[in-house]
Fold these 2 entries.
Entry 1:
Amino acid sequence: MTHSIKWIFTTSHKPNKEQIDKAYKLSKEYKSKYRNRRHIRDIDKENGMFIVERDFTVKFADKNSEIFYHPSISKIRYNNYESSENDYLIKTIDATPEATVLDLTMGLGSEALFMANYVKEVTGVEASFPLYLVVKEGLNNYNFKQEWMKKASKKIKIINDNYKNILMNIEDNSYDVVYCDPMFENPQMKSSPLNSIRQLAVYDKISQEDFEHMVRIAKKRVVIKARENDSLWDKFTFDEKVGSKNSGVYFGVIKIK
Ligand SMILES: C[S@@+](CC[C@H](N)C(=O)[O-])C[C@H]1O[C@@H](n2cnc3c(N)ncnc32)[C@H](O)[C@@H]1O
């Protein structure tokens, strides 16, 4: 993706030389600006800045949000699944160790990390540059305590683009599974792990054309997540719809083979 915005890259307070080097390198890579932490201005805090932390993960902060990488709910999902073998996502994607997954809406990457533990590879697509960079640097540098997370994080590739720009260029049957989890039309604001990303996220809706591309490029499954009252269910027909009445979150499944 081309980067028309000039971002500010800096470090946490009292940085070491490696942090400064990394912030400077990132600023060059993304054709943006490096600024010494002591010279950060109020306007930088307002517009947004990327902060290279001591562990080399990258935090994004602006006037509305502060986003840092964390494996988040993937840990709970993993523990639940390991004890009960019950998880709608893992079931609906029909996860196998050979499978490849295209996650079109990677967000904070929690589901990408969770899926990666059960498949060969996950390719994540994220349109928001701050989210993309925080997750990319998080997956590469976060000090994962659990062995499964260390391994899973290495199986994820990330692309910063809008899936609407790239779907048409992907060949037929390129991935076993195409997964899409757009921002809900009627979100559950209460304590959602997604509250932190609401200001930065992209709110695209799946068009008929997007849907047809998803079916074309998937070998086995297309899985789309939405809340019960989202318009997705009126727009498209699925082979299966599973989910929990309690949470109101459902997974629509197209079975290709
Ligand atoms: C509900 S969140 C996904 C959460 C994710 N499953 C997780 O585990 O963290 C939706 C994400 O998709 C991104 N998104 C929405 N429309 C997109 C598009 N057309 N292309 C790429 N990313 C998109 C949003 O910016 C947001 O980060």
Entry 2:
Amino acid sequence: MINYEKFANSEIQNLISIQNKFKEIFKIDSYENWFFDGETEILRFYNSSEDEIFFKYITIGTYSLKSKNWMWSWFNDSSIEKSKEQTLKIRHFGIENKYSKLTQGTFPSDEYDGWDFLAIGLKTPGGIGVYKANSENLEKYMLLINVLDSKNSNEIKKFKQKKIDCNNHGVSKPAFVCQHLDLKKTKGFVEAFETFEGMDLEDDDDFQAWCNECEEVRKKYDGWNEESEKFAKIKLVCEKCYFELKKFNTTN
Ligand SMILES: [Zn+2]
Ligand SMILES: [Zn+2]
């Protein structure tokens, strides 16, 4: 039997080659924005130019940046995602091979475990690519199962009316900010376009803001690209969080 580290390493190599092909085929890097919804289990990538693509996904687990703990989806009572049962396949595989990281519901972890788990998940339950979505203090590791036809799907219609369920504010519209913006220290607030609370947005627009430092990096790279996006590490927040952040970071 191969030990876990060796096994995970070889699966990561497999993930890299699958992911490179996936990105190329679906032109993933050409999309600036993303949004997901747990009830429909759909992840959307999109642009202001109205290009968009939809994937069905399975969240295999989450990593809390606050507690530094990994939690498998099958263990997560607060997750409403139906497909979380699918992640039990990874657990069974772990039991058979005595890989304890695959069998404990939650444990202290780091930013690398999740990628190993995605790589293993590509084998079972399977997928065509992977994605990590960031929200407040939480990283969500997703297997992308298949692409949805954007014209014929009722699911997509349902998805498009979706809102975010914020821990602090309840159900509200989604918004996006860089990883640095918080309510502790003023960091500036640069917006994609001028906003006010409660304003109506076009279908393909989102509230989007980043800090002064991100703006410097963005300018240096002549806009958003892989490098500047890596620095900003845009995360999902609710509309109310967004305007709290705006107020704090522009007036204090
Ligand atoms: Zn920033
Ligand atoms: Zn909120």
